[in-house]
Design goal:
- Strand 4 and strand 5 form a beta hairpin.
- 22% of the residues are buried.
- The protein has 120 residues and is an alpha+beta fold.
- The chain contains three helices and eight strands.
- The protein has a six-stranded antiparallel barrel with strand order 3-4-5-8-7-6.
- It has helices at residues 11-17, 36-42, 105-119; strands at 3-5, 25-26, 30-33, 45-51, 54-59, 68-75, 78-90, 95-101.
């Protein structure tokens, strides 16, 4: 399995990379890329899991760790437009990890409520 992360490749960094500040829940929904070049590159993307801090996306296109993306998604009836940073790439699984950045307080509250709704 090929995993690229924004952190160092040593064992210690890999352990820390697996720690999350926000609880993840399994959640499958379509994700759209707002920027035209990203939308064309991704073809189709959908989530594998979600947290208030980011999500894991399945996509057939490759991305570089550290790239910025603008995402549009509707989750549990809530529409979101969020900026993200590609924090890891798993080429063999066609998956990327996106960490949300510059999230407004209102969107953070809504994300937490959506994540909580998946736990019920």
């Amino acid at each position: 399995m090929t995993i690229k992360t924004a952190e160092s490749e040593d064992a210690s960094a890999m352990l820390h990379a697996n720690r999350r500040a926000h609880e993840r829940v399994t959640a499958t929904f379509d994700v759209r890329f707002q920027d035209a070049p990203d939308a064309a590159r991704a073809l189709r993307a959908y989530s594998l899991n979600l947290s208030a801090g980011g999500l894991c996306l399945r996509t057939r296109r490759s991305y570089d760790v550290g790239s910025r993306v603008r995402l549009q998604m509707t989750v549990s009836g809530q529409d979101f437009e969020l900026d993200g940073l590609i924090s890891w790439v798993r080429d063999d699984a066609e998956a990327i990890g996106v960490r949300f950045i510059n999230v407004s307080e209102a969107d953070q509250v809504r994300l937490q409520a959506v994540v909580a709704s998946f736990k019920r």
